[in-house]
Design goal:
The protein is built from no helices and 4 strands. By secondary structure, the protein is mainly β.
Length: about 70
């Protein structure tokens, strides 16, 4: 059996603590990963990464809490 095909959808990153879209329509690389760099205020932030579906893959999302230092 072959490797699963990588999706062609995009990722939207949201800070749900502040209801702010951090990055939208971030493309996946050939490994199926997406990344972005943003500046956040100090404190805990709940970050949601949502996969925007393509024709072969359904939408999904994951949420994590990340602390940000003031340094």
């Amino acid at each position: 059996s072959g490797a699963a095909a990588v999706g062609t959808g995009t990722i939207t990153f949201t800070d749900t603590t502040t209801a702010t879209t951090l990055a939208s329509d971030v493309a996946l690389n050939t490994s199926g990963q997406a990344a972005t760099t943003v500046t956040l205020a100090a404190g805990n932030h709940t970050i949601r990464a949502a996969y925007n579906a393509d024709a072969a893959h359904t939408a999904s999302a994951v949420t994590t809490i990340r602390p940000c230092s003031s340094e």
